[in-house]
């Protein structure tokens, strides 16, 4: 089992920056590829970013490319989502997830999920 706890959400203004963190506990963190996803009420959850277990490979959704950056610290069992130039359309509950197969993350085929943290961006 892997337990994931997100933190760092809050109420922001357009143009602000914010960093989300996801703390992992349980099995060896570096064995898992990690992803960030987001969901707004009435909409499907969408992929935001993913990072390989080693941190060598990353991918970001087109909607956040150039503004958001995923990273991880395997020594601390943490994964981050640095969000710059926030827009009102970034408002969502943000979830982190862990998966054994890197390419599956983009399809949200993950093994473990956190409970999410709310990010609200006002205009």
Tags for this entry?
seven-stranded mixed β-sheet, single chain, 123 residues, globular, mainly beta
Structure commentary:
A hairpin with a 6-residue loop joins strand 5 and strand 6. The chain has strands at residues 2-7, 10-13, 18-26, 33-39, 46-51, 58-60, 68-73, 78-83, 92-99, 112-113, 117-122. The strands form two sheets. Strands 2, 4, 5, 6, 9, 10 and 11 form a seven-stranded mixed beta sheet that branches. Strands 1-3-8-7 form a four-stranded antiparallel beta sheet, with no helix packed on it. The chain contains no helices and eleven strands. With 123 residues, the protein is mostly beta strands.
Unreliable stretches? none
The level of helicity is under 10%
From the spread of the alpha carbons, the general shape counts as: globular
Nearest-angstrom radius of gyration? 13 Å
Order of helices and strands: EEEEEEEEEEE
- Termini separation comes to 40 Å
Tally of contiguous helical segments: 0
What is the arithmetic mean of pLDDT? 96
Backbone structural class: mainly beta
Strand content: over 45%
The biggest beta sheet, please? 7 strands, mixed
Number of strands: 11
């Amino acid at each position: 089992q892997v337990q994931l706890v997100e933190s760092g959400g809050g109420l922001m203004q357009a143009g602000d920056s914010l960093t989300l963190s996801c703390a992992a506990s349980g099995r060896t963190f570096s064995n898992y590829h990690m992803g960030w996803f987001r969901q707004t009420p009435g909409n499907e959850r969408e992929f935001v970013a993913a990072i390989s277990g080693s941190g060598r490979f990353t991918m970001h959704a087109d909607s956040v490319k150039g503004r958001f950056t995923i990273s991880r610290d395997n020594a601390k069992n943490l994964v981050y989502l640095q969000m710059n130039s926030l827009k009102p359309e970034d408002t969502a509950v943000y979830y982190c997830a862990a998966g054994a197969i890197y390419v599956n993350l983009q399809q949200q085929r993950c093994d473990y999920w956190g409970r999410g943290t709310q990010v609200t961006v006002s205009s």
